[in-house]
Amino acid sequence: MTAYGHWIAGSWHTPAKGHYPVVNPATEEVVGEAPESTPAEVADAVTAAQAAQGGWFRTDPRERAAVLDRIAGLLTERRGELAPLLQAETGATMRLTSAMQLPVTAERFRRYARGALETDVIPLPPQPVAAGPLAPAGLIGAAAVRRPVGVVGCITSYNFPLVNLAGKVAPALAMGNAVVVKPAPQDPLCCLELGPLCREAGLPDGVFNVVTGSGPGAGEALVAHPGVDMISFTGSTAVGKKIAESAGRSMKRTLMELGGKGAAIVLGDADDKALKSAIGAVGSVWSFHSGQICTAPTRVLVHRSLYEQVVTALKDYAESLTVGNPVDNSTIVGPVISAEHRDRVEAYVAGARDQGARILAGGIRPQVSPGFFVAPTLIAGVRPEMPVAREEIFGPVVVAIPFTDEDEAVRIANGTPYGLYDYVFSADTRRAWALAARLRSGNVGINTAQRHPETPFGGFKESGTGRDGGSFGLHAYSELQSVVWPS
User: Fold this and answer.
1) b/e for 150-167, b at 16 or more Cβ within 10 A?
2) Inside any domain, residue 238
3) Does the keyword Cell membrane apply (predicted)?
4) How far from 55 is each of 64, 120, 297, 365, CA to CA, in Å?
């Protein structure tokens, strides 16, 4: 079992406050020990990033691209070493870890290796300008140029620690920023392992730093530090609001990817193909990382003519899934991240039952021990105003709600504080396209839960602010500077 230090300025630093244990959610055994941060150690990381950022920005973009590409290559080479640690600290199934977590992390670094070579200059047509008190008349040329923000504080989520880190760090580095990463407390070890890997790839010392902590103190110190120019955060809306309040005191830029309560709307014209897609998409709430994903379609809104058919199919789907040890290849549903989170998910299900809802599948803790397991749960008889239908649960729980017409479906779908990812299933894609325009959601999938990697990703309402993904990620980690000259 390894006791890690903070990764600051290209080397390990022994934590002044010692360590805390990182626990495997499936076995309840300690995987390793992560460092506790003090505000002084966070400040050291910020200082290192400030000192390194200017030189990194002045590095030829081709070299920045080469470094990011080498990071991707090393991640691929070391997947055999990293996968068991990543699986153990997250509790994800080995299939998900090997097929999605590590490959997507590497691909994000490759994508932004290409991104480092994208133009950062937006030419503007010359404009004739009349004489004024400041300057004579003339033909004035101009360009808008993207410049790095500076030092970016990246606070990441526990569900996909490396994927989420790469989605922030890779575009930030491609634009010439330096970063200080504060991973989620539950599973920071692979994020720490990325430090020496980045150094081996040729990233200058201080451009990438990692500090950790078991509580909110490290993140709060990072957000409040005057040397941090931007905060990129993925996590709950409640924490995001606190970060926004703190960041606003110094007018820091923020990128917030917050909670979701996705609606999968199954229209009455859905044919067999659309229904199959809908069942698979909604079933992913159970089968994909135990529902610990903000884009999950955790509400299925079904036209009354198809409601019983869809609910029956979903009940069969949920009951067919194997819950158990995530390193067993037959397992589909692994644990949630902690005992505290398991208890929180179970409390939502119990609350729905007490309010008159019907638990059609799950609702009883699986007979799997040790570990923090929640059975795939399907709830019917749910009213839209119930907490289970309005609040993010972040677990393997789906609520089914019938509707009569599109207007009612839109009201229910838009009737939560969130607006991250919704879905429409219909035999008529033109109709689904028109309905998407009525949804207050940053993303809409039509007959699919698949993602497009180049789309802008982010949410409406309390699901966040800003967009990343593809070239939009480069925009997110840059400031626009206007440069003007006489032609």
Assistant:
1) bbbbbbbbbbbbbbbbbb
2) yes
3) no
4) 11, 18, 44, 54
Active site residue 294: yes
Q: What is the spatial distance between Cα 87 and Cα 82, in angstroms, rounded to a whole number?
A: 9
> Looking at this protein, which amino acid is placed at residue 119?
T
In angstroms, the Cα distances linking 384 to 310, 344, 411 are 18, 20, 10
228 with 297, same domain? no
Bond from prior residue into 396 cis (ω within 30 degrees of 0): no
Domain residues for 47? Answer: 6-258+463-486
Q: For residue 266, list its beta bridge partners.
A: 302, 425
What would the pLDDT profile of 411-469 be if each residue is shown by its tens digit? Answer: 999 999 999 999 999 999 999 999 999 999 999 999 999 999 999 999 999 999 999 99
User: What distance in Å separates the CA atoms of residue 148 and residue 116, rounded to the nearest whole number?
Assistant: 12
CATH number, domain with residue 359: 3.40.309.10
**Which pLDDT does position 27 carry in this prediction?**
98
> What pLDDT score was predicted for residue 99?
87
Instruction: Classify residue 268 as exposed, middle or buried by CB count within 10 Å of its CB (0-12, 13-18, 19+).
Output: middle
Query: pLDDT (tens digit, 9 = 90+) per residue, 4-33?
Result: 999 999 999 999 999 999 999 999 999 999
DSSP string across 177-212: -EEEEE--TTS-HHHHHHHHHHHHTTPPTTSEEE--
Give the active site residue among 294, 346, 392, 462.
Answer: 294
**Global pTM value:** 0.96
Element of type H or E holding 377: strand 377-380
Q: Residue holding tokens 């960041």? A: 247
The length of the chain is: 487
Q: What is the mean pLDDT of the chain?
A: 97
- How far apart CA 257 and CA 293 sit, in angstroms, is 12
Residue 1 belongs to some domain of the structure: no
Residues 6+ apart with CB under 8 A from 482: 142, 143, 144, 145
The catalytically annotated residue of 41, 193, 257, 346 is: 257
